[in-house]
Write a structure and sequence with these properties.
The complex is a heterodimer.
Chain A: E1 4-5, E2 10-14, E3 19-21, E4 24-25, E5 32-39, E6 46-52, E7 60-61, E8 64-69, E9 74-79, E10 88-96, E11 106-107, E12 111-116
Chain B: E1 5-7, E2 10-13, E3 19-24, E4 31-37, E5 43-50, E6 53-56, E7 65-68, E8 75-79, E9 88-95, E10 108-109, E11 113-117
Parallel strand pairs in B: 2-11
Antiparallel strand pairs in B: 1-3, 3-8, 4-5, 4-9, 5-6, 7-8, 9-10, 9-11
Chain lengths: 117, 118
């Protein structure tokens, strides 16, 4: 079964508007971390935002915020005031557990975001 | 502060040749990870290393693939006798020393090496 599910293969948003990219996850471990990365057409993988399972507040980083709903196991990325440069693939990833040697990230298939002028 | 460095950025090999991919982590980072991305897919974990130690290689194919992170120098991902199915983007990431379970273990990625096997 998919541990990270991104149900939107592609999304469109008008410049300057906000957009929400969905991510649901599946884990039985009470301790985990959730990450969002951006991959523009040039191919590099850029870290955007992190949410820990025990964090009391939703993470925010500039125009990026994470709508973390633990009971629903969702960690949606919200991008406010979209810019043309936001056009890219967006990946949600999870690290399960907090054991010292368990650091591998499990990835979703990504959502392609296109920002229209 | 330079980011994660990977070279080469593009690598073309013929079937049966060897591919050697290099990764220099960010300054101060002691953990290195390798991931593979097939076309139109997310990343798949391959291996996690610290200096001179392989910590988790649960994602590495059993044959032809090996990784090392020596005391001096970059981490190397080595693929022997490449086949067409090895064609992919290979990403290296690094993270600072610190406890897993905190945001300090965020992984920062290099630009990737795109391997094409003819």
């Amino acid at each position: 079964a998919q541990k990270i599910t991104q149900t939107q293969p592609g999304m469109f948003v008008q410049e300057k508007e906000a957009v929400t990219l969905d991510c649901t996850y599946d884990t039985s471990d009470p301790s985990y971390g959730l990450f969002w990365y951006k991959q523009p057409s040039s191919g590099e993988m850029i870290f955007l935002i992190y949410q820990g399972s025990y964090d009391q507040q939703n993470a925010t980083e500039g125009r990026y915020s994470l709508n973390f709903q633990k009971a629903r196991k969702s960690a949606n990325l919200v991008i406010s005031a979209s810019q043309l440069g936001d056009s890219a693939m967006y990946f949600c990833a999870m690290r399960e557990g907090s054991a010292g040697n368990n650091r591998k990230l499990i990835w979703g298939l990504g959502t392609s975001l296109a920002v229209n002028p | 502060n330079a980011g994660v460095m990977q070279n080469p950025r593009h690598l073309v090999r013929r079937r049966g040749q060897e591919a050697r991919l290099r990764c220099s982590p960010m300054k101060g980072h002691s953990h290195v990870y390798w991931y593979r991305q097939l076309p139109e897919e997310g990343l798949k974990f391959m291996v996690y290393l610290q200096k001179e130690n392989i910590i988790d290689e649960s994602g590495m194919p059993k044959e032809r693939f090996s990784a090392e992170f020596p005391k001096e120098g970059p981490s190397i991902l080595r693929i022997q006798q490449v086949v067409r199915g090895d064609s992919a983007a290979y990403f290296c990431a690094s993270s600072p020393p610190g406890l897993a379970g905190s945001g300090t273990d965020t992984q920062y990625f290099g630009p990737g090496t795109r391997l094409t096997v003819l």
